[in-house]
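Ticket reopened. Same input as before:
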Amino acid sequence: MPAPRTVLLTGAAGGMGTMMRELLPGYGYALRLLDMDPIEGEPDAITADLADKDALREAVRGVDAIIHLAGISLEAPFEEILRANVEGTYNLYEAAREAGVGRIVFASSSHAVGFTPCPVGDDPLIPIDVPRRPDTFYGLSKSFGEDLGSYYWDKHGIETVAIRIGSCFPEPRSVRMLSIWLSPADGARLLHAALTAEGVGYRVVYGSSANTRLWWDLSSARALGYEPQDDSEPYAARLIAEQGELEPGSADYEYLGGGFCTDPPMWRR
Ligand code: 15L
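Engineering reply: fixed in the latest deploy. New output:
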């Protein structure tokens, strides 16, 4: 596959989308932006909902690849998740299939495997092939999106790299995030690797920086050519002084998904 140049970025107005639309052009991409909300200063951005199949058909026409970040990014009522994340992702894949787009990079999440126990002491890092253990309807929708990518690869030959993104923010915001933080610069590096690695077929990888307190095994991401440059450790002393160490028995200590695992989840719309 020739290196993709024109790339559709869905969710371009969101937190990660905003950072990636600033960073990815530095890798030579011409981005086509899509979001349900208008994007200030981006008059060419497509304002469309993922339920709008005609708009999606138009949006994917002529692109080499898609980065799919759009959707609800926290826990929400099932009907809302179903519409935005499940049906919306299906609509996008169908539009891609009709248009012959060869590769989709799907923003999956740690929450597809959120009930996986966090490693402690000498426990090995969490491998990529752990069973899915979604922690929310949101996590379930990411699990669905991973399977959708697998299905479209096997049946229609559309490649997918599903990235189980940790926490992508300018800085880690909690002690838990020290273990799964994805710096914006590493986020762009990982997306670039996912867009350009040869012959990926269908792959699932974890998405984080090279954090000292890492919980998961980054080797599947590194196999794409991703070389993380950042580490959350410089933020550790301040965050621990402010919030304390993770306490055994707390959701953040016990489970990869942290506060998404409680009932009700701490992180919801
Ligand atoms: C996610 O999947 C969310 O999209 C993001 O907003 C963060 O909350 C992140 O997980 C996390 O677990 O910190």
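The longest strand covers residues 103-109. Strands lie at 6-10, 30-35, 46-47, 65-68, 103-109, 159-165, 202-207. Please confirm and we'll close it.
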